[in-house]
């Protein structure tokens, strides 16, 4: 009952804007930055570690105001502790630097007991704070990002325990290129990283030109086409035959029109519109779906940006350019030396280790 009385007194005085401490530190004002109701907690701590834990619990729950009583914890030490917590919270702590605008406090007494009044101003809502996903490392973060992309979410915020610097926008691009049957449109990615040290909060925001409902509908329409492609491949066929069958499956769908699209796989499979990249990423995904090795190569063809495929046959990689195959009228592979007019980075070839000089030489060029 005594604890409840203290809580009621703290709430009533905070709401009225009146002072509630007995000493010279008394000044507590109504906090309205978040436009939400006041939240007050009465807690007791006896050392710095407990004080820090209580403050972090407030941050994790989005609590704006708190009353913390000091048990066997000198006020001068508490002052030093709060100063350290303020600095750490807004500068190095990942969740704090993501969520907290500022932390203010008053140290005095309440009913003769030493206490701290804490007032936290947030730059995030309690819901945003509680939606932060906790993952242990980059591998788990990648899986969480993949799930967000598959759901066409507008973003994801991750607290990564073992953080490593990386290009998250490139990670999103690579995943989308490897999974065109899932990601219909590659979003623009805005990245913000908060905190210092081993743990960081990473805030990724995704911007799409196409609506979420439309992209989800596109994905539902693409799924049966990939299923049909798998059925089109003969189970007992040799690898070369399977590659050729998937090429035939694609080419028999439309008389294609070469044109770029922000939804490349959907536009290719449902409207017969696509560029070299659309063909390459879609073909690679279909090959992988039946267990064939197929990679996407980017470079230039006759000095123009171009995309094609690399497949694995007879213990070595060969090139396939689907758009050029249409000119031949059949499925056609090429060795490195036969790729006249193409330029690419040799180091991008899976399992191939080359010298710097060889990388710079790249492939034979014939522009006529």
Structure notes:
With 368 residues, the chain is of the alpha+beta class. Helices cover 41% and strands 24% of the residues. The strands form four sheets. Strands 1-2-4-3 form a four-stranded mixed sheet. Helix 2 (48-61) packs across helix 3 and helix 6 (138-150) packs across helix 7 (168-178). Residues 1-40 and 353-368 have low confidence and may be disordered.
Topology diagram in text:
Elements lengths: L1 H15 L25 E4 L2 H14 L3 E6 L4 H17 L2 H6 E11 L2 E10 L3 H5 L2 E5 H13 L4 E8 L5 H11 L9 E7 L5 E8 L4 H21 L6 H13 L5 E2 L5 H8 L1 E2 L1 H14 L4 E8 L2 E10 L2 E5 L1 H7 L13 E3 L11 H6 L7
Parallel strand pairs: 1-2, 5-6, 9-10
Antiparallel strand pairs: 2-4, 3-4, 6-8, 7-8, 11-12, 11-14, 12-13
Helix pairs in contact: 2-3, 6-7, 8-10, 10-11
The helicity comes to 40-55%
Net shape = elongated
Beta content: 15-25%
Distance between the termini: 91 Å
User: Which stretches are poorly predicted, pLDDT < 50 over at least 5 residues?
Assistant: 1-40, 353-368
Report the total helices.
Answer: 13
Radius of gyration: 30 Å
Strand order of the largest sheet: 1-2-4-3
Mean pLDDT: 86
The count of strands amounts to: 14
**Biggest beta sheet attributes:** 4 strands, mixed
The oligomerization state is single chain
Q: What order do the SSEs take from the amino end to the carboxyl end, as H and E?
A: HEHEHHEEHEHEHEEHHEHEHEEEHEH
- Structural class, from secondary structure content? alpha+beta
């Amino acid at each position: 009952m005594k604890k409840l009385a203290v809580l009621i007194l703290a709430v009533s005085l905070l709401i009225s804007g009146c002072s509630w401490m007995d000493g010279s530190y008394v000044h507590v004002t109504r906090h309205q930055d978040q436009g939400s109701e006041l939240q007050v907690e009465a807690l007791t701590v006896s050392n710095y570690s407990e004080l820090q834990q209580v403050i972090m619990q407030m941050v994790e729950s989005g609590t704006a105001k708190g009353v913390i009583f000091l048990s066997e914890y000198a006020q001068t030490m508490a002052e030093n502790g709060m100063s350290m917590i303020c600095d750490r919270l807004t500068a190095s702590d990942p969740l704090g630097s993501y969520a907290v605008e500022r932390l203010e406090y008053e140290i005095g007494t309440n009913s003769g007991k030493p206490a701290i009044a804490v007032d936290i101003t947030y730059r995030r809502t309690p819901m945003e704070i509680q939606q932060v996903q906790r993952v242990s490392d980059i591998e788990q973060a990648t899986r969480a990002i993949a799930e967000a992309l598959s759901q066409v979410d507008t973003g994801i915020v991750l607290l990564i325990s073992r953080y490593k610097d990386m290009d998250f926008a490139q990670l999103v691009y690579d995943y989308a290129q490897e999974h065109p049957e899932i990601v219909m449109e590659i979003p623009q990615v805005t990245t913000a990283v908060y905190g210092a040290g081993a743990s960081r909060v990473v805030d990724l925001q995704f911007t799409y030109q196409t609506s979420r409902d439309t992209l989800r509908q596109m994905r539902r329409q693409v799924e049966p086409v990939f299923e049909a492609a798998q059925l089109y491949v003969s189970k007992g066929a040799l690898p070369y035959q399977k590659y050729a069958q998937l090429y035939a499956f694609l080419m028999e769908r439309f008389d294609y029109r070469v044109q770029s699209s922000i939804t490349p796989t959907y536009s290719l499979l449902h409207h017969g519109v696509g560029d070299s990249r659309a063909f390459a990423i879609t073909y690679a995904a279909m090959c992988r779906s039946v267990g064939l090795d197929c990679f996407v190569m980017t470079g230039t063809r006759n000095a123009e940006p171009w995309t094609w495929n690399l497949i694995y046959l007879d213990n070595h990689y060969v090139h396939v350019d689907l758009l050029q195959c249409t000119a031949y009228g059949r499925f056609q592979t090429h060795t490195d030396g036969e790729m006249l007019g193409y330029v690419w980075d040799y180091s991008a070839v899976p399992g191939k280790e080359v010298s710097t000089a060889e990388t710079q030489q790249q492939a034979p060029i014939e522009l006529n």
